[in-house]
Design goal:
Elements (H helix, E strand, L loop, with lengths): L1 H11 L2 E5 H7 L1 H4 L7 H12 L1 E5 L11 E4 L4 H10 L5 E3 L7 H5 L9
Parallel strand pairs: 1-2, 1-4, 2-3
Length: 114
């Protein structure tokens, strides 16, 4: 699975929009040295550490990883600014991100509405 993700990430770019749960599940890629136990894991850990991300959460008190912003609520204007500054596509991930499509459609080019 990681080999597929590692191959796709260069096309996606290095800006990730996460929900709280996925952010908390992925911080080990930066904080746990054992996360790089195989070549694929080490490759993904490098990609994750190099990326910038925003975690959207009303309950997370703070973020513990570098290159991470904490946002209290989804803001299509903020996502539009992130998209405008990004050289590549954004990665939108998380269990409750299904609630975002209407807001993402307000940001041209962030979500394919087809």
């Amino acid at each position: 699975m990681l080999d597929f993700i590692n191959a796709a990430e260069p096309e996606v770019g290095t800006y990730h929009l996460y929900g709280r749960t996925l952010y908390e599940m992925t911080i080990g890629w930066e904080t746990d040295p054992a996360a790089a136990h195989s070549p694929d894991s080490a490759g993904f850990a490098r990609i994750w550490r190099a990326g910038r991300r925003s975690s959207f959460s009303r309950t997370l008190q703070s973020v513990s990883t570098q290159r991470t912003r904490l946002e209290r609520s989804f803001d299509s204007g903020l996502v539009g600014r992130i998209k405008a500054e990004a050289a590549q596509d954004l990665n939108v991930s998380g269990a409750d991100r299904a609630a975002w499509p209407s807001g993402l459609r307000k940001v041209a080019g962030v979500l394919d509405s087809s």
